[in-house]
Each structure stands twice: as C-alpha cells, then as structure tokens.
C-alpha cells in the first residue's frame, strides 16, 4: 500500500483538485444508495471530485477501498462502516495517512479516530416505535423481532430502544428474535420459518425497512398480513408507500440526505482549516405511522 506524506498529498491535490471517497457498507439497499449519492453530489457541488465505493458488507473489501483511496490520493473519506469494531482499523489507516474520515449513520467503537461521526439517534427513535407497538397490540400478544447485522451498533441501539419500552409489559411475549442482516430476502426467509413454529404472532418489529418489507411478503404468502402488524425503521420509499396503503404500521424516519450533506460539508470545512468537530453528532429520528405519513417524504428532508 502506498501512503503519501502530507506535502506530497497536498501537491497532488493542488494539481488535480481535491478528491473525496464515499465508502459505504452496501449499495444493495436503496437507503444506502441515497446516502452515498447525496454525499457524492454534495461534495461535487462544493467543488470536489467524488467517487462511490461499495463494500458489499465485507470488511476486507472495505479495507481494499481504503487502501485504494489513500494510494490514489483521495483527500477525505465519507464513510458508512460495515462493522463497528472491524472497521476501526480501516479508519486508522486513513488517519495515519493524514486523510480525514467522517462517519455517516453507522459508527465505529472508537473515539478520536474518525474526525466526526454523524449518526441517527436510533435508540430514541425506537423508544417511540416501542410505545406505538405497545399501543397497537393493546399491551399483549406474541411478537417477533428481526435484527440487522450483529456487528452494527445500530442493530443493538434499535433493539435496546424498542425493548426499553416493550419489556415493561409482561403480556407482550417475544417468541423469536433472529437476525436477517438488514436484507429483505433473508428477512422473508426468517419470517417464513418463524411462522411455521409460531403461527399465532400479533406483531413483528424489524430493524430496518428492507426487512420489514421481506417480513410483510412472507405474511402475505401465508395469508396472515391482516392478522400481524409490521413495524420497520428507516423511512425508505417502499415502506412509506406501504404505510400509506395501510400495509405496514410504522417506521422510524431517518434523514440520510441530511446526514450525507453534513458529512460532505464537514469535509469542506476541514479542507478550509477547521479542526474542532464534535466527535458524535446525533440526528433525530421521527416516527411515521398511518396517521401522519402524508406529512413525510421518503428518506426525509434534504
């Protein structure tokens, strides 16, 4: 791996214009496509070259992207990590090469490695969903939770926020908790298997909207979509439409465009000489349900 010293990297940048790498966990999810494209477009509006790299939820591929970005003379990384612990080493690679990293949506479990981490407040968002879940299930019944990637802190922040509310109601009984890696098809398969063992569930909470749609597909196939209430998290386009159509009950609206633009703006400020950034910047999550869905657009505001 070639690592350029500060003076050499500055000379390359002044000759060719500064370059920003947008490295995201996966482009196999519309939410992350919006995050990546918004970050890249905002960097371009600020006058920089920008390239998107897809890690395909693979930390080793993510490492390749970081090494490529550094050896190719990129000046900053707007980063959506694949793993809260496994991605730390990659951010350190960039830091040691004097390339600033700004994390988007997903965090790494280390302070003062990335310049700043702009993160959805998943815990608080799922407290709101938990309260609505309790209300809609009338405080009783069997339910299922479908988790995302076990190495992503968002998975556990969302689960903990949800359970901080739901666990206070003893007549609400979780009969299954399985991960589906934030993947729609995996969630459909998980839901199909769970229904064979627990056909009498009343609700399912999914850690993202892709999994909510997969779970809903399985319920439709089993003829149970009218009996089981589905709750998601993200604010993705297909779930907003499904809420409008009275199919999905609710989701947590994240704001990927705001997160991405903030990260790109921070990189610009860094290039301009600013060094004092908050280590973590929380972005509010808002609950969207069938009562207020017409007040929202997919993926939140710009």
Stretches with pLDDT under 50, minimum 5 residues: 1-16
Average of pLDDT: 93
Number of helices: 10
Strand proportion, as a percent range, falls in 15-25%
User: Order of strands across the biggest sheet?
Assistant: 2-1-3-4-5-11
Largest sheet: 6 strands, parallel
Terminal-residue CA separation: 37 Å
Q: Class by helix and strand content?
A: alpha/beta
The tally of beta strands, per DSSP, is 12
How do the SSEs run, as a string of H and E?
Answer: HEHEHEHEEHEHEHEHEHEHEE
Radius of gyration: 20 Å
In quaternary terms, these chains amount to: single chain
User: How much helical structure, as a percent, in the residues?
Assistant: 40-55%
Give the overall silhouette.
elongated
Quick overview of this protein structure:
The protein is α/β, with parallel strands linked by helices and 302 residues long.
Which key features would you list for this structure?
302 residues, alpha/beta, 6-stranded parallel sheet, 4-stranded parallel sheet, 10 helices, 43% helix, 20% strand, disordered N terminus
Write structural notes for this entry:
The protein is of the alpha/beta class. It contains 10 helices and 12 strands. The chain has helices at 6-16, 30-45, 59-71, 88-96, 122-136, 153-166, 184-197, 209-221, 237-244, 256-271, and strands spanning 19-24, 49-54, 76-79, 101-104, 116-120, 141-147, 172-179, 203-206, 229-231, 250-253, 280-283, 286-289. It has a 6-stranded parallel sheet with strand order 2-1-3-4-5-11, sandwiched between helices. Strand 6 (141-147), helix 6 and strand 7 form a beta-alpha-beta unit. Helix 3 (59-71) packs parallel to helix 4 and helix 5 (122-136) packs parallel to helix 6. The longest helix has 16 residues, at 30-45. It starts with 5 loop residues before the first helix and ends in a 13-residue tail after the last strand. The model is unreliable at 1-16 (pLDDT under 50). InterPro entries: Peripla_BP_I, SBP_2_dom. This is D-ribose ABC transporter substrate-binding protein. It comes from Echinicola pacifica. GO terms for molecular function: carbohydrate binding.
